[in-house]
């Protein structure tokens, strides 16, 4: 009966049959993942080698596709329409295989799900030019281009700002005294940069090296000589990058109070004159 069952479907050309549980698995050997099981508990058969007594429906099936041939009296036959589990094309992004239980979908690359209905990267959920990679059923990850971040690469920095960590940084080309630089950053909805850990310190340092320029930051000891605070909320500067010999408050009569990454100090920190004009770095959280 398993072989007869197979014969009804135009794609079926082999069966696996497990007598103990009366399980019949219909196979299309041309389809991926359909294999005859060579196991002592299975009875398997390749339909191309199958012989049975001929009748009006076998070996030549006179009925059209998706119709069932029924032998009748006097070596006649009748064709009755039937619908295979694959007739309705249930596999949205894949190939339909008829099985004993119904059908099984073999999904295209980048699709998954019982009916290959999940295509998590179509349409591309990654924004701002991000690349989508399928990880599994409805699972994906976005690989973001530089200066974008977030699960969907939805986070960006304004034009002219550079992303690092969770922040955007602006390296000025213009030179201002420290007080004016502070206002400039405030007007851009930011503050003078306050790199609070070694990772941020090296990022800004490496950028300054690239620009070959001195850039001032948001720290100073204006309030109490020798006590360097970040400007935004007067936090003590806990991580620093002073060049050896700095801070020195200046070697002549001038007071040096403002923290800058100095090209003359190996791009490490120097306390410099707040009333001198320098380039500077603003920061703000990315949006
Ligand atoms: Ca000082
Ligand atoms: Ca100094």
Structure description:
It is found in: Secreted. One of its GO terms (cellular component) is extracellular space. It comes from Mytilus coruscus. It holds the Pfam family EGF. The protein is mainly β and 287 residues long. It has helices spanning 2-7, 178-187, 198-211, and strands spanning 14-18, 23-27, 43-46, 67-72, 76-81, 94-99, 102-107, 131-136, 139-143, 148-149, 155-156, 162-164, 167-171, 191-192, 215-224, 227-230, 258-262, 268-272, 279-285. It folds into 3 domains: 2-88 and 97-104, no CATH class; 120-149, no CATH class; 160-285, Roll (Mannose-Binding Protein A, Chain A). Strands 12, 13, 14, 15, 16, 17, 18 and 19 form an 8-stranded mixed beta sheet that branches. The protein has a 3-stranded antiparallel beta sheet with strand order 2-1-3. The protein is rod-shaped, with a radius of gyration of 37 Å. The two termini are 66 Å apart. The protein binds calcium ion (2 copies). Residues 221, 225, 249, 255-257, 271 line the site of one calcium ion.
């Amino acid at each position: 009966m398993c072989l007869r069952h197979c014969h009804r479907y135009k794609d079926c050309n082999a069966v696996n049959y497990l007598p103990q549980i009366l399980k019949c698995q219909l196979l299309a050997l041309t389809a991926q993942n359909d294999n005859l099981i060579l196991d002592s508990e299975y009875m398997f058969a390749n339909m191309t080698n199958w012989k049975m007594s001929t009748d009006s429906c076998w070996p030549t099936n006179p009925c059209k596709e998706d119709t069932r041939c029924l032998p009748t009296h006097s070596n006649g036959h009748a064709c009755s329409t039937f619908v295979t589990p694959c007739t309705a094309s249930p596999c949205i992004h894949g190939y339909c295989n008829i099985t004993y239980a119904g059908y099984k979908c073999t999904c295209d690359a980048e699709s998954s799900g019982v009916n290959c209905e999940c295509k998590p990267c179509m349409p591309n959920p990654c924004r701002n030019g991000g690349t989508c990679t399928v990880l599994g059923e409805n699972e994906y990850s976005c690989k973001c281009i530089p200066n974008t971040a977030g699960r969907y690469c939805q986070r960006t920095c304004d034009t002219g700002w550079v992303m690092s960590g969770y922040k955007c940084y602006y390296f000025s080309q213009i030179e201002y005294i420290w007080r004016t630089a502070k206002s400039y950053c405030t007007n851009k909805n930011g503050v003078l940069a306050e790199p609070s850990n070694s990772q941020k310190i090296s990022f800004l340092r490496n950028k300054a090296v690239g620009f070959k320029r001195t850039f001032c930051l948001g720290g100073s000891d204006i309030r109490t000589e020798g006590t360097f605070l970040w400007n935004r909320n007067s936090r003590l500067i806990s991580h620093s990058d002073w060049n050896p010999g700095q801070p020195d408050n200046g070697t002549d009569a001038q007071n040096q109070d403002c923290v800058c990454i100095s090209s003359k100090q190996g791009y490490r920190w120097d306390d410099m004159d707040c009333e001198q004009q320098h380039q500077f770095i603003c920061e703000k959280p990315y949006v």
